[in-house]
Amino acid sequence: MTLYDEAFARGARHADAPLRPVGLDVAPDGAQTHAVMSEQDLLTVRHAVRSATVAAGFALVDQTRIVTAASELARNAYVHGGGGSLTIEVLGHGARGGVRLTVRDNGPGIPDLDKALTDGWTTGTGLGHGLGGARRLMHEFGVDTTVGEGTTVTAVRWNNR
Ligand SMILES: Nc1ncnc2c1ncn2[C@@H]1O[C@H](COP(=O)(O)OP(=O)(O)OP(=O)(O)O)[C@@H](O)[C@H]1O
Ligand SMILES: [Mg+2]
């Protein structure tokens, strides 16, 4: 199992630093889970994430950042993971609020996460910008992936930064 988070990405490699999915210390106001099994589901997910960002009080540019990240992660689960799900949680409204995305699949997993996060690196026909791009659009980002079992990506964007 490989676990990746923002601190790790920035080179803060402390052997005993907790490696964990991000943002789990905040209880959500509400959660909704959507299937990501078709092109239509990808559209549905975009609309649902947009609505959640509105509910959380994000301005238009941030709404679009979060929708874009969700779209890339959902597409990865669909294309590379053979389908999965996306859970949207609203972590309060306004200045102290945020949105957490959790995208799961039971696909092949990611053997080399550093490569997968590198812009331009792809095993498919895409540009290879999705995963790294999604990470840059969000404030917190974690990937929990096991080869042969699947991948879970957790990402949070806060409204006060
Ligand atoms: N959920 C996943 N399951 C398995 N492999 C994945 C998953 N997500 C990403 N990958 C791997 O990481 C690589 C990079 O992903 P990334 O989203 O950056 O690019 P891409 O999907 O290939 O192209 P695009 O720019 O269209 O997103 C993929 O080519 C794939 O090998
Ligand atoms: Mg992609």
UniProtKB/TrEMBL annotation:
Keyword Transferase attached: yes
One MF term in the entry's GO annotations: protein serine/threonine kinase activity
Residues passing through the membrane, by range: none
Alphabetical list of SMART domains matching this protein: HATPase_c
First and last residue of the signal peptide: none
Keyword field contains Transferase: yes
Residue runs in coiled coils: none
UniProt keyword annotations, A-Z: Kinase, Serine/threonine-protein kinase, Transferase
Domain Histidine kinase/HSP90-like ATPase: 61-161
Name of the protein this chain belongs to: Anti-sigma regulatory factor
